[in-house]
Structures are given as C-alpha cells and as structure tokens.
Amino acid sequence: MLLLSSLFSSSSSSPHSRLLLLRLHIHLRRSISSSPPPSPSPPPLLDLPLSHPIYTIWASNTGLGKTLVSTGLAAATLLSPFPSSDSAKFIYIKPVQTGFPSDSDSAFVFRKFSQLVLRRRPSFAVSASNHVLKASASAAEAVLGFGSEGEGELRDLGAYEERRLLGEEWAAGAASELTCKTMYAWREAISPHLAVEREGGAVPDKVLLEVLGRCLRIGSEDGRGRMDVWSVVETAGGVASPGPSGTLQCDLYRPFRLPAILVGDGRLGGISGTISAYESLKLRGYDVVAIVIEDHGLVNEVPLLSYLGNRVPVLVLPPVPQDPSDNLMEWFDKSQAVFSSLKEIMLSVYSERIQRFHDMPKRAGDIFWWPFTQHKLVPEETVTVIDSRCGENFSVHKVQNNDFIAQQFDACASWWTQGPDATLQIELARDVGYAAARFGHVMFPENVYEPALECAELLLEGVGKGWASRTFFSDNGSTAIEVALKMAFRKFSLDHGIILDSTDPNTIGKFIEVKVIALKGSYHGDTLGAMEAQAPSSYTGFLQQPWYTGKGLFLDPPTIFMCDGIWKLSLPEGVQSEKLKQEELTFQSRGEFFSKSRDGSSLAGSYSSFISQQLSAYSGLRGFGHIGALIIEPVVHGSGGMHMIDPLFQRVLVNECRSRKIPVIFDEVFTGFWRLGAESASELLCCQPDIACFAKLMTGGIIPLAATLATDAVFNAFAGDSKLKALLHGHSYTAHAMGCTAAVKSIKWFKDPQTNSNITSEGRLLRELWDAELVHQISSHPAVQRVVALGTLFALELQAEGSNVGYGSLYARSLLLKLREDGVYLRPLGNVIYLMCGPCTSPETCSQLLIKLYRRLEEFKPS
Amino acid sequence: MLLLSSLFSSSSSSPHSRLLLLRLHIHLRRSISSSPPPSPSPPPLLDLPLSHPIYTIWASNTGLGKTLVSTGLAAATLLSPFPSSDSAKFIYIKPVQTGFPSDSDSAFVFRKFSQLVLRRRPSFAVSASNHVLKASASAAEAVLGFGSEGEGELRDLGAYEERRLLGEEWAAGAASELTCKTMYAWREAISPHLAVEREGGAVPDKVLLEVLGRCLRIGSEDGRGRMDVWSVVETAGGVASPGPSGTLQCDLYRPFRLPAILVGDGRLGGISGTISAYESLKLRGYDVVAIVIEDHGLVNEVPLLSYLGNRVPVLVLPPVPQDPSDNLMEWFDKSQAVFSSLKEIMLSVYSERIQRFHDMPKRAGDIFWWPFTQHKLVPEETVTVIDSRCGENFSVHKVQNNDFIAQQFDACASWWTQGPDATLQIELARDVGYAAARFGHVMFPENVYEPALECAELLLEGVGKGWASRTFFSDNGSTAIEVALKMAFRKFSLDHGIILDSTDPNTIGKFIEVKVIALKGSYHGDTLGAMEAQAPSSYTGFLQQPWYTGKGLFLDPPTIFMCDGIWKLSLPEGVQSEKLKQEELTFQSRGEFFSKSRDGSSLAGSYSSFISQQLSAYSGLRGFGHIGALIIEPVVHGSGGMHMIDPLFQRVLVNECRSRKIPVIFDEVFTGFWRLGAESASELLCCQPDIACFAKLMTGGIIPLAATLATDAVFNAFAGDSKLKALLHGHSYTAHAMGCTAAVKSIKWFKDPQTNSNITSEGRLLRELWDAELVHQISSHPAVQRVVALGTLFALELQAEGSNVGYGSLYARSLLLKLREDGVYLRPLGNVIYLMCGPCTSPETCSQLLIKLYRRLEEFKPS
C-alpha cells in the first residue's frame, strides 16, 4: 500500500469530536478496468441508465468553478437537512484531468465534501472515496515517486482513498456515499490533447466512452430508488475544449447526450462567452437545464435570462473568495440555497423527462396518424420512443426493471434517407443553422442564391455528369417523379408532333392518352401521378387510390439474387431462354453480371425481342395510346421488395426506348447518392437517362429536398414566348436554402476520401461493406430464399408461403423484435428484411450487423 | 475650440525631422449627424456599399486584441511598402465604446497609426482623423470638463482631432487617409447595456444601424477604386455581448451581415471560446473569413484548423508585450507579415464575392430550371441575386455605378411561406440546428419523438381545435391535399356502403368514379391528384398536365371585393338575385359580411338552392358518378387570383355537403396560421371541416412541412385488421424533426402577445395591418379594378383587358420593376398584384408599403 501525500494534501487528519472512524486507503485497485474488453464481439453499446439523475457539468471557459458546483451539488444531495431518504449516493466522475496530481478535481470534491460533512452534519454516517484510474507515465511517476517502462502508454494508477465518517446516525444502519473518480490524468496543466502529445497516453474516443459508460452505470446497479442516487460528469475546460484525442469534448460526449448544467461567466465579457457556449451545446443537441454564474456585480444574469426567453433558469453564486488560504467553508454555506435550488431544478427536469417518456407512446397512439401503419396493430408497448440519434444510431427509451436509454443501429436508414455519421450530423446541424440564419427561405424563381446554385452545380457535376444540364427542385421523390413525367411527356409530344397548345382555349380540356412503360414491382412514390406509373399492386386498390387506373405498359423484369452463395438470374415468362447457356444464368460475382461485355450475349438478343414484342403488342392493342416515357428504378426495385433487376435488361430497355424516341426517366430516389455503391446507379447500369429524380440521401438524410435533372433537349421542349408554355409546376419551398446547404455538404462529404473512408482510390465506388463470407453463409441459410447485397444495402427474403408473402405479411415480426433487443432497428417489407447503412459506415459495423442477423436467423421460428 | 487632453494623450507633440505639418483640432463637428432624419418618409433602408471591402472585427471575449488587429490592418493598408495605388483610405468605425474617454479604441488606432507612420514611412503623405460623435452625459462631462442639461440623453460630442502628416511624397499630390470614428461613448468600463442603465443615453437599435449605415457609406462616395478604400467596424466585447439596447451585438448588426474577422483566444481554454464564438456568428448567418489569435505557446491554431476543416484560415500574432509602457512599435513590426496576409485574405474573399455576384445570374440562367417560369422571358439582367434575408427583407445584390446590397421587403412572402421577423429567424436557426444535432431525421411510423409529438399537440390545440383529433404529416401542400382526398374518399365510401376491398384480389384494378365538388378558381397544388380537384384552367392543358381530366363538379362562387371604398358582392350566374336587397350586395365593413347573422338572409336561401340544383343536375347527368368530397380554400382563393369568396356561400356549401354525408376538406395551405388574420380561416368562416391541410406558414416559412388534420371518424375509416386497410401513403421525411421543431417554435411565437405584438388582447385575431384610409384610396384609383385586404394580405387587380388579363399576362411588369427600386419585392399573378407581410409585421411597415404602391400606381403606364 502506497501513501500518496502529494495527491491528497487535505486536512484529512484533523480530529473531530464526533468522528468515530476515518480511514485513508490508497492502493491499486481495478474494480473498474479502463481497458477495452478484448473480445471480438460487438463493441459494447452505450446504454445509459435513467434510474437516477445523471448530468454533465460544462463551462463556457476554464476556471469558472465547475468543481465548486459539483461539490456544492454533492453536499446538497448528501447533506441536505431534509434528505429524501436515509441513504443517498453521489457519484462524481472526472473523465479527463490535466495538471495532475497537483490539480485533481475529484480529490477536491472528495476533500471539500469531507470537510463539509464534519462542519454540517458530524453525526452523519457517510463513506467517501476518491479513485484515480489511469494516468500518463509522468503523472503516474509524480504520484508513485518512480517511473516505469512503456513510454507513451497510460498506467493503471488505481490510486484510491476512502474515508468513512461514521457519525451517530450510523447506528441506524444507513450510510450515504460519495464516490469520486478520475478516469484519466496527465501531468501538465494544459489542454488534454496537448498533454497527450507531450506525455503520451493516447485514449481513443471509443475507449474513453466505454469506460465512462461503465462509470455511469455504477449508481444504477445497487437497486436504490431514483431519488437517492446522483451522477455528475465534470468536463475539462470549456465546452469545445479538445479531449485527449483532439475531439472536442462537446462532440466526444455526444453519444450519451447527458442533460447539461452550464457554468457561465459572471465577469465583464462573460455574457458573450456564456451565450456562445450555450449555443455550442445546443448545436450538438444537448439540453441545457440550468446556467450557473458567479456574482461579479455585473448582473450578467439579466441579459442571459432575456436571451434565453426565461426558458432556462440562471442561478447566481456568491463571489468566490480570492484568497487561496480560504477553505471555502463559509462560501459553501452561503451558496447552500443556490445549490439546493439547482438540485431541485435538476431533479424536476429529470422526473419530467422520465414521466414524458412513459406518456409518449400513448399520446402518440392517440393523436398521430402514422403513414403505412395499421394503428390497430400497434399496441402502446411496441411504440418506440426515440430520444435522439447520433450518426447511424437511435437512442431509444426502454424499460427493463428500470428506465434506460439503449442504442439501436438504424438499419432501415429511416426510410432509406440516412447517410450521416456522427461527425457529419454535427456539421450539418451547424450548416443548416447557418443557412436558416442567413437565408431562412427565399423565393426561387427568377432568383439565385448561393446554396441553390452550388447544389445545382454539384448535382450536374456529380449524378448528372455527362448528360444533365438543368436542375429542377422539388420537395420529395414523389413530386420529383411527377415533374419528370411532365417533362418526358412534353418532350415526347414535341418529338412526335403532338401539339395541344395550352394557350389555345379550344384545346383546353382535350387530351390524348399518353402512358409510361415501366417494370412490374417498381414504385415511384405515393402521389397520384407517381402512382399511375406503377403496375397494379396492393397499394393501388380503390380504397387506397380511388383515382388510380394504371397508366402504363408494365413488363415483368428478370431479377438476379444470391442463393446458396451463387448469383442466379430469374427470367420472366416470354423471354426466350431455350438457347441460353448456363453461364448466362448464374454468376460467381457481381462483376460478372454488371459487365458491359454481356451486351453481345444471346440473352441481350432475347431481351431485345421480348421488349419489342411487348411494345408492338401494346400499340396494336390500344391503337391511340402512346408510350410517352420509360420510367425505371435503375438496378434495384426498393419498395417493391428489394429486387435486383438484371442490369443488362434495363440497359437493353433503355436502348429500345431511345431508338423509339421515348424519353428515359431514371427514378434514383432510392438508388442515388451511393445507396448502391456508386454516386449514381446509372454508373452501374452503364447508360444514361434523359431525366433523373433524386431525393432521400441527397441531403445526407437530414431534410426533405428533391431534384429532377434533365438534358438540354428536354428543357428546350418548354421554351416559348408564353409563360403558359413553361413548366407550371412548383412547390413553395422549391430549392430552400437549408435543404440545398445540407445537400452541398453531404454530396461533398460522401465523395471525399478525407471524410468518407469507404471511398475507394478511384473515387467512383464504395469499398465492399458486406463481408463476402457472411453474405454467402446467410444466402445458404434454410430460412432464406434469396439475398441481395450491393452498396449500402443488404436484403434477404425469408422463405414463406401464402399470406406470409408480400407487403401485408407480419411474418418477420418475431425476428425484428429479437434484433431490436440486439440493438438493430429493422423495418420489414413483408417477408423481406434488409439492413441499410450509410455511405460512411465501416465494414466492421456492417459485419456486426450481419453476425447479429445470422444468429437470430438460427433461432427464427415463423410466428 | 476645446482642447481635450484627456482624450488624446498620445505623443502628439513629439517632433520628427520629416514632419512638415501636424495639427490637432478638436472641435464640434456634425458632418455625420447621428440623429435620425426627422422626415415621416420610409425609414432609410440599410443599403450597403460593396465598392470596397468592409469587415467587422469580432472577438470571442473582451481584451483579446481587436483594436490591435484594426490598427495592424490600417497600417497594412495605408503603409504597405507596395501600395496598390497612390492614395488609399482606411475607415475605422467603433459604434459603441465604454470606459470613455480613458478607453477609446478609435483614439488608440489614430494614435498608434500616427506613430507607425512616423516610424515606417515618414516621407508619406497621410491625413489621419479621429472623431467621436455622441457620448453619454457623464462621458461628455469627462471630456468637456462641464456638465450640461438633459439628464439621460446622449450629447452631440463631436470631438474631433486630425493630423496631417505631409511627408515628401505630398508633392505628388497624393494623400492617404485614416478616418477613425467612435459613434457612441459611455463613461463606465462596463457592458454598453449596463452603461446605458447607469448613465442614460439609450440608443434604439434602428437609430444605431442608420448611423452606422451612413458611416459605412463614407468610403463609397468619393469615387476611389475598389482596392483603395477599406472600412472596418470594431465591435465591443465578445460576439454576443449586449449592445446599448441590450440586443446582442451579433443580432444587432445582422441586417448588414458584414463579413467577419474573429479575434480568437490563444490562451488555455481559448480553443473552446473561439469555436463557440465562431458558431454563434455562423448561427446568425455571418461568414467568418479569418480567425486571428495571439500566440501563447499553446498552438491553439492546430485544433482550430482541424475543427474548421481548413475552410477558414487561422493567423497567429506574436505575443503582445505585457508591459504597459511598451509603445508596441516593435510588436507591430513583428506582426507586419501577419497583417499583410490577413489583408490579402480579406481582399481576395472580397474580390471573389463580387465576382461571384456578377457570375451568378448567368450561371443560374444556364443550369436552373425555375418553376412557373418561362426562361426565355428572364434575361440575365433581371435575375435577382439574393445575398441573404433578415426577417421580412431580402438583401439583394445590385449594380448602379457601383456594386451594393439593397434591402427589399419580401412582399410575395416567398410564395406565401414567410412569417418570421428578424428575431424569430435567429431563434429558428438555433432551434433547427439543435433539432438536426439531436435527431437529424428519424423514422416516424410506430415511433414517437418530442418535436413530432409537440407539433401534433399544438396543431390539434390550435388550428384543429374543436374538431380534429389526428395529425398526418407530409412534405408540402400538394401532398397534404392528396392525403386529404384519400381520407375523404375512404370515409365517403364507408358511409355510403361502397366497399372495394383492396385485400381482395378480385377487386384490384376495379374502380368506381368518385369526384370532388369544388369551386372554380380554387387551386390545391401541382401534383396530379391535387390538380384533378381543380377546374380546368390554363394550368391544366395537355401540355402541362397530360393526365388531367378534372375530376370534379366545379361551381362558380360569389366573390367579394372592395371597389371605390365599398365592399361589393359579385354573384355568379345561376344564383337567384332578383329578390335580394341592396344591403345584401354591398357592405361598409368586413365585419358585415363575415357576420354569422347573414345565415338567415334570403341570400343564404338563394345559395342553398343554387348548390342543391347543381348537385342534382350533376348526379342526374352522370348517373354512376359520386361526389365523394368537398374541397375548398376557405375565404380566399390564393393562386386563383386572390379572390375573396363570400364566406356565407362557403358556409352554406359546407352545410349542404354535410347533410349529404360528403366529407369536407379545407385547404388551408395558403390561409392557415394567421395569413388571413386568424390562426385558422375556419374561424372566419364560422364552420369546421372534417379534414384540413396546412403547410407554408406552419414552420414560420423556413422549411417544408405539411399536415393533414382529420376527425376521429375519418381516422376510423382506416381501422382494420390488415395493414392493407391502413392509409398507405407516406413520404421519407414524414414528421422530420427539424420541420416539426420549426413549427412548434413558430406556432407558439405567432400566437404569443409577448413575441407578436399584432396579437390582439383576445388572442384570436391579428390587429388590422392595412391602414383603412390607404386601402380605400387605392380601391378608388382608376387603374385598380378591385382590392382585397385581410390579415397579412393586400391584393389588387389592375384594370385590364384581353391578353392583359390572367396568369400569363405581363401587364404588371413595369409596376413591379419600379416597386423593386423602392425596396419592395413583388411577384404578380398576371394582372393581380399583392403585398403580403408576416403575422408579426408592424402596421407602420404595411403603411409604408401601401404608400409606395400608391405612388407607383399614380405613374403606372401599362406596358
């Protein structure tokens, strides 16, 4: 056992009449290991207990008194004259300490608290401890008095001291506890990132968060009631001061999104720093529950409250004595009422939050009208309460014995919109905040403003490269499709001499029949115009779509999927397959069937005759009907059940239409922006459209915005001398600044190898995200009928029959519920389930998802 | 002439060999008056010259060296060894100074600069002046040595000193100038808002901005080339330090949105404060061009650059000597290269901005596809470049002799979306930033998260109060309408026993004909389903809407408008009017025709028979056709030409439909959220729908979001055991967190008298915004056919004939261009023009708009 006098230089040996026992241990202890678990199993998810209040203490600058506030709160909790229970526990956590051991905030809290016990409630039974887990070599040497090997690594310091103050009340068997912990310490009194640079002892963010997570779970494990335990995490320096890795602390701790107490600045100039720090916390999604400032005679609380619109309380602490010999006991006495109020505020916010969590599912079921949801099938207990998201993960409220926040990977990509990692999400928050402040929303037609222009430029240089020259903005995929149809039909009409002049009153109300050619199983959105372009399905009956007639020639497409580790081609009826060789029907790799060399195959010929035949049959049948546009989802049909269409077939189809002067629309709402591994699926298809629609991932998945790109030839079909010849379609928020700003940031982010490590050196494709062996294995599982893995998408169809097949099926429900327990949030398309990640998600994360899925498949028993 | 030694205590009398002349004036001067102009004319718009670089110097805290940076820049500009021209001008403006006269930053710049001239370029010809415009009584007394009357008011101090340093170069006739100005000064060295509180001398923000605007125009008036003039505005304290009125400076100066130099903090803890200050500036829409920090040996620039992703340069100044007797001359010498780089950065950003302004119109015309716009009719020079918006105003780039930024009131409310004043806009920016950081976007169906729940609650308690119980979210008005139609038809089908079960494969593809009843001239959005619910019009021809058939019974409605100061009712053919009294056809006030007492009038009877007749005739005609929904825009038809429909007629129509069990849809996309003076137009109509659609103003006009509200009875029509009976309609970003957050903030803001001074004491209506007398006057103008004024809308139809009538008309063009010169941005609906403000816009602002409109009507010559 080592005695570390330099570390704990307090008045620990001062006698006190009522003190029965006072012990000071300092020994190496590893009750909480700070090493990451060695297992190759999934990284521990950052589950967070809600069984008691946990807060972070932030400050707008260094030296403003965070540690005084922590100490005051500890005293208010444990030494209250009116305790809420016989015994309470206060856990103080200092994740990062520099200037150690001469500066040690956890030692300060420990020491001051002990003094306050003796001063205020000497009869009280309380045990207080202070524990320092890890330290840099030089900080450890300063404590231990000798150095050790392993330059640059952190030492398991495990310095521990404990005091038991067993007052008269001890007899009752009750004892309160103060637990202080410093997780990591460095010797120099500088910013942690600099200390690491100079002394070594790097800590990856992930490891730091895991250790912190375990510290936060301390108080929730001993079964005390909610009100009896408190945890407080005290940060280092200001809100945006770097942590050990250089990550700003406000970003570093974001996954826990703990409610915040902000220690502001009561000095001259302090209003500004306090407000800015508050805004930095808000810009990372934190809830600031109270602001505390020291009184410097400048009544800074008045402008602060005015700025805050009285939504956040501002508490004022008495001036702190400047004399370093002052033991602060009188100051703590004077501050008692403030800390007591602060504690009450924190407790009431905590209680309200828990209450709201419990109320939300019922409220939601009572007043929401969820889309695509049969409310009768959603009992209150299955409603997911989402507290927040951080990158790819939801934080959801759960109850198992106690309340907690669980992390779930958003494997439905929130209806295929999602792309941001945690870093991009915060960058987007700042950028859309900027766009809102700079532009709000401004009128688009005949105007130009930077975000819209830059967005249009990036679209034309990216997904529209080589063919598109115009960008038309709208709000969602569905409207983008309706616009595309209008564009295509106009172009078709001009090209085929069908002129019904809308400026001529005689032709108003007259119309000819113009339809699309499309593929069965494709889906283009929910508005009527988009709906008309899809084949009849369970979505299109009278009760759903009273005006639907199905304005198209709908072809059965050939699909490709993996089964038992082999890619197989499934041909529709009508495609001549007698003469085809086996190698035209099965493939060892994706590269084979995406190869352009298939253009000369006999299958290409079969496709071409099949399409010609269908077109001739249709025009023979209908006489006056025109096919005015081709519309396809390139490569993969999304909503239709994640079917991969043979790219050769789609390429032949495009060529057949082009030769007939039928404009070609690519619906890239689902497939665009790296969803399938390339920025545009047209790259995979090796052919280009005349018109293409984008939405979903375009803004990084953060805000609605859609674009319809078109060639100059299409655009020119709307030129004329009258406004009535223009495209008279537009939505109020066309090209809104926030959406365009988010798109600009995301489009650049996804394709930049600096920000997206999945971008391959050539920059045209994402690296493979789904482990080939695992994919094979799953495709060979008896419960699995077929698998599709491409880009950010992994989909499988469960073997099923009868009513278990199709969109209405609840077949996959039990599997989904199990996977949610594993921290994977899925949403099925009937008996088709899929995992979808973002363009920046690491292959390691994807493998963890596949492993979890495989494990659950093993135990899958259809309901 | 007064000599104020305390004010300018520099080494002004030190002799120098090459000094030819040095004069020190201090006298009262009013070349720039700081009083507002007394005229009742419109408040001077905050036009901003772009003829030379103008920057604001901000700091993350007080005492970081803003004034050193200003001085260094002045020297870099005027004393460069390689001047860009013979003579240059540097204008230094300190709007707000406290601690005066002992602290005077403008005096510091003046003095140090003079010293630097003598040190660096004694042969140089330069004139330097320092001028203090206004001071509080006690600051003035400290300067003048005597007090004066008028406690609490600002004094015209006009302290002025000037030095002419006529070096050898003077012979060449060229002379450079440094102009330093302090606009307002207070004596105590505290925050300006506190100084005002203690010493008096309040300055309204508007006045301060006007004076600053005039100071900023100084350099642009003398015809120098762009590179020769620089202006720098130095703020007081930190970025969010309060100004004299208490408004935070970052908010106060926002209307100019000057590009920013941020002086950061190089000390321990300074990274955090610098980043937070940067974020506060971004959250107000400022562009930060460079960050400057003082070297404190902590290499704070490294994490700053990492945070900034190298997008903003960080410059490091040498350590500033702490010795107060140091004259800093050596420090300025050592800093010369840094200031020179800073100046180059500022110059290049400035030049690029101007260049981009000039390029944007052509780029826009080349790659945008504007909605509702015939591109051929938009020459490059008519494209408006919008640099930003602040509250109701656009800041647009203009060129007249020189480049400048002009303010234009957004009188089209950017397609009727706008509502925020400048304060709400910044609150929305922070709140949507928070929502993006906390939630990004998360999946909605079967889930609940706070912004969506709170938004739904507010909608049901507000616009849906008394009837709605469910909220369905979508993206825009058009999708909200399609959803409403699906809801209504389902309800109608159930109520009338029409069951085509979409789960029964036999009925898939079968359909019955169900249509709407609607009013001619109403407009419900641009997607096909919404379009089908409107009567044939110039929007619906084959070329525009190839699939349009017009699925409705469309009635001609009676309209009400003001003409010659009288409200007149215009009845459609078919409404029996023989027996009507004159008082049923004209009204002295709006209250008369909105009165529910008209329900018993003979006109109500005529309406009722007219509607019954039409319905019977229709069902007789079509046989199998069902009228499955009523859809109306309550009170005013927006896109149809701003026609006010007789509210009695709409009420009777609703009742007729209800008695036939036809569900009633209110399209409140345009009319909702105070647009017409009430939160919901159904309040004006005194009747309630079964379904209502909202969008546009719902989010305050900042971001797309729509909601379709419905009664429980409508919702229950979708209940069942199968998912396929649910409403299978949804968009990816359904109930996205940012949109809901913006809606929550805006809905509360608009109806709270604390934040919206237009809310009347009863809280149900906005006060009258359009001056009655002006409205009368305009309605009597010979060029005007009719006027509608209601809530935030003022519309008029110009007298016109033939092709000048209707949406395609360009009749109003000349009028619009004139009004844009007056700072009013209008967009016409053919020969109908309108002014639209926000719910918080002051009646004074509205009157200014009406006056400008009236003036331009006087000179209106149709093109």
Automatic annotation (TrEMBL), chains A, B:
Source organism, top-level taxon: Eukaryota
Family: In the N-terminal section; belongs to the dethiobiotin synthetase family.
Cofactor: pyridoxal 5'-phosphate; Mg(2+)
Listed GO MF terms: adenosylmethionine-8-amino-7-oxononanoate transaminase activity; ATP binding; dethiobiotin synthase activity; metal ion binding; pyridoxal phosphate binding
InterPro entries assigned: Aminotrans_3, Aminotrans_3_PPA_site, P-loop_NTPase, PyrdxlP-dep_Trfase, PyrdxlP-dep_Trfase_major, PyrdxlP-dep_Trfase_small
GO cellular component, one term: mitochondrion
Record key words, sorted: Aminotransferase, ATP-binding, Biotin biosynthesis, Ligase, Magnesium, Metal-binding, Mitochondrion, Multifunctional enzyme, Nucleotide-binding, Pyridoxal phosphate, S-adenosyl-L-methionine, Transferase, Transit peptide
Full protein name: Bifunctional dethiobiotin synthetase/7,8-diamino-pelargonic acid aminotransferase, mitochondrial
Pathway in which this enzyme or protein is active: Cofactor biosynthesis; biotin biosynthesis; biotin from 7,8-diaminononanoate: step 1/2; Cofactor biosynthesis; biotin biosynthesis; 7,8-diaminononanoate from 8-amino-7-oxononanoate (SAM route): step 1/1
UniProt main location, coarse: mitochondrion
General function of this protein: Bifunctional enzyme that catalyzes two different reactions involved in the biotin biosynthesis.
Reactions performed catalytically: (8S)-8-amino-7-oxononanoate + S-adenosyl-L-methionine = S-adenosyl-4-methylsulfanyl-2-oxobutanoate + (7R,8S)-7,8-diammoniononanoate; (7R,8S)-7,8-diammoniononanoate + CO2 + ATP = (4R,5S)-dethiobiotin + ADP + phosphate + 3 H(+)
PANTHER family, per the entry: ADENOSYLMETHIONINE-8-AMINO-7-OXONONANOATE AMINOTRANSFERASE
A biological-process GO annotation: biotin biosynthetic process
